[in-house]
Amino acid sequence: MTAHDWAERLASGEPIDAPVALVVAHPDDETLWAGAALDRLRHLTLILLTDGAPEDMGDAQRLGFTTREDYARARANELTRALEALDARPKLIRYEVPDKQVVEHLPELIERLRRDLTGAELVITHPHDGGHPDHDAAALAVSRAASAPIVEFACYAQVKGARVFGRFVADPDSPEWARPLDAPDRARVDSALAAHATQALVFGEWRPEAERWRAAPRYDFTQPAPGEGALYDGFGWTLTSHRWRTIATEALQSAWR
Fold it and tell me: How far apart are alpha carbons 19 and 119 in whole angstroms?
């Protein structure tokens, strides 16, 4: 099956018995963007690239944590509760890179993903849309590591200066398929998002009303992400989109030598 075929099948809502790998940047990404689908993926491997805790400690201190490790532990526990709420039982693989640092570890992550994605017939991950540097780095790493078709879930990006959740930056060569969530799906996802309590200020009152899937476009990761610019450039982070592209380009060039 092609990636387009897989995207259409995911949107059909039918159970999938083939081995599937879901590669996400942070604890809560699995719930926000693919939560209602997880129990239908009967042979799922969930690969978590970061532990969700930045080294700068800003988020941790705001939430009352005194160490980065305590914050990471809390996020790990939230993920466990969220997966229970979603009735999902994936094989879970944690890479435990600090939040916002995936791009700094691309060579080793790509090598590890190549091993961990062996046997997967479908790989699902983030789009490259400038929403978060770890999301974009996940898209890059999977694009270099996966031999199976790659399908994206809709994430968040900048639209007219604001963060818009659950939508793709349109690509004419990669049409999307959507599956509206019914009441039981919405209830399960809502319970799972409640489990991710430390992230409540990030997603606020937003809740997914549909799953959205598409085949991963052919991105040029050395150029700005498609869309209206990197959302995270407005956050005052040290890691800007320009620096992200510099690090990513160096990693890609090193791989080509």
Answer: 7
Q: At what angle do helices 106-116 and 241-256 cross, to 10 degrees?
A: 60
3-state secondary structure 46-111: EEEEEEEEECCCHHHHHCCCCCHHHHHHHHHHHHHHHHHHCCCCCEEEEEEEEECCHHHHHHHHHH
CB-CB contact of 54 with 99 (8 Å): yes
DSSP string covering 190-244? HHHHHH-GGGHHHHTT---SEEEEEEPP---TTSPPSSSS-GGGGTT-SS-HHHH
- Partnered with residue 211 across adjacent β-strands are 179
Cβ atoms within 10 Å of 138's Cβ, excluding its own: 28
Burial (CB < 10 A; 0-12, 13-18, 19+), residue 4, is: middle
Eight-state DSSP code of residue 174: S
Reported as a single tens digit per residue, the pLDDT across 90-125 is 999 999 999 999 999 999 999 999 999 999 999 999
Lookup: tokens for 253: 């060039």
- CB within 8 Å of 182: residues ≥ 6 apart: none
For the whole prediction, is pTM greater than 0.85? yes
Euclidean distance between CA atoms 242 and 183, whole angstroms: 42
State how far the Cα of 23 lies from the Cα of 38, in Å rounded to an integer: 13
Beta bridge partner(s), residue 20: 44, 122
